[in-house]
Amino acid sequence: MTRLTTGQSFNTISAVGFLAVVMIAGGCNPAPGIARGEMLFDTCSPCHGDDGAGDQELAAPAIAGASDWYMTYQIEKFQNGVRGYHYTDAEGLRMRPMSRALFADRGDIESVVEYVFSLPIPDPPATVEADAAAGEVEYEALCANCHGVDGRGVDSPVPELRAPSVLHLNDWYIASSLRKYRDGVRGAAPGDGAGAVMRGPMAGMSDERIDNVTAYIMSMQRLPRRVPGPPPEPLPELIVDASILPAGVTVEMAREGQEIFHGEGICVTCHLRGGEGGPLAPSLTDATWLNVDGEYESIVDIVMTGVAQPLEHPGQMLARAGTSITDDQVRAVAAYVYTLSR
Questions:
Q1: How confident is the model over 234-285, as pLDDT tens digits?
Q2: CB 105: neighbour CB atoms within 10 A?
Q3: Would you say 305 and 315 are in contact if contact means Cβ atoms under 8 Å apart?
Q4: Closest CA to 101 of 227, 10, 17, 200
Q5: How many whole angstroms separate alpha carbon 226 and alpha carbon 68?
Q6: CA gap 152, 168 in Å, rounded
Q7: Which residues are CB-neighbours of 16 under 8 A, at least 6 positions away?
Q8: Residue ranges of the domains in the chain?
Q9: In 3-state terms, what secondary structure has residue 317?
Q10: Cβ count within 10 A of residue 309
């Protein structure tokens, strides 16, 4: 269990840290780079530790093992209110004002990230007692497609399709984060496409199942950070016989839908590239439809409303894939999906 510190002592730490960041950011200090980052990190260390290994008493996670792109992305999400928006998210609410004292135009974010990335990677001990064998089954079905079978994450030029490493984290933080995704405390803010990806598999997860997944993650080989691989191959041009399309649906709509499916709409995360399906979601390339009849308007409806109780796959399909895609974009995605099985 995560134990939060909410007394005056922690509030004092937060206030002093915030003011110190402001003073450093506004004063005469080193140019952007690791030296500036080290100075700025002095205001992070009271919670995250001098070594960036975290502090359970303050519910501050280990950050020294994180990827640089992920740290940057999360700081920006805190600054923009995409994280730390929920009234029950005590940790997130504390981080928001701290993050906003870092000025991107002065190089503060890149400097802090560079310094944290330079720290030795921690390997926090396991503390959650649960069924790791059962967790392995859950991880392979729900997590491996994005975070990799080795847990080292996946890089991508599309932010919504990036997945961070889950290694070298505190298990109490992993379990707490998964519960936040499940409960809408994290990942439900407008514009949080990556968070929406996490919420689907977590919907309906019991505390026991979350603890099992956490225990399995902590049993995985503690590999170093992933070296980003090459970007995926460009999508092939979609060739469609216009005569098979329903009235009002065009080839241009289907091609737009292909781009959204593999990018902004993040359908590819569960249905995989080309819609061939996987552990999280069914194939869209055959004549078998589990929840609808496969006609165009029914596909539109299911993308609009989602699937709260999937018949054969774990995790919910969120309405509009948990994103803010428009009605026209939904219809474009449906047009693309319609072509896949025909």
A1: 888 999 999 999 999 999 999 999 999 987 657 888 888 888 887 788 899 9
A2: 6
A3: no
A4: 17
A5: 11
A6: 10
A7: none
A8: 1-120, 123-231, 242-340
A9: strand
A10: 9
- Retrieve residue 14's tokens: 């937060």
| Res 27: pLDDT | 53
Domain 123-231 sits in CATH 1.10.760.10: yes
Q: Is 12 exposed, middle or buried (0-12, 13-18, 19+ CB in 10 A)?
A: exposed
Confidence (pLDDT) at 5: 41
- Distance separating alpha carbons of residues 48 and 172, to the nearest angstrom: 14
Q: Residue 338: is it exposed, middle or buried by C-beta count within 10 angstroms (0-12/13-18/19+)?
A: buried
- On the 0-12 / 13-18 / 19+ scale of CB atoms within 10 A, 319 is middle
Binned at pLDDT 50, 70 and 90, residue 229 comes out as: low
Q: How far apart are CA 319 and CA 332, in angstroms?
A: 15
**Residue 182: burial class (beta carbons within 10 Å; 0-12, 13-18, 19+):** buried
Q: Compute the distance between CA of residue 124 and CA of residue 255 in angstroms, rounded to an integer.
A: 46
Helices 193-202 and 171-183: angle between axes, nearest 10 degrees: 90
Q: Is the pLDDT of residue 3 over 50?
A: no
CATH architecture group of domain 1-120: Orthogonal Bundle (1.10)
At 83-103, the pLDDT tens digits run 999 999 999 999 999 999 899
Helices (H), 119-206: 132-142, 144-147, 171-183, 193-202
CB atoms within 10 A of CB 149: 11
- Structural contact between residues 313 and 281, judged by C-beta atoms closer than 8 angstroms: yes
| CATH no., domain 242-340 | 1.10.760.10
Q: Picking from 7-16, 59-68, 247-256, 272-281, which range would have the lowest pLDDT averaged per residue? A: 7-16
* List of E strands, the chain: none
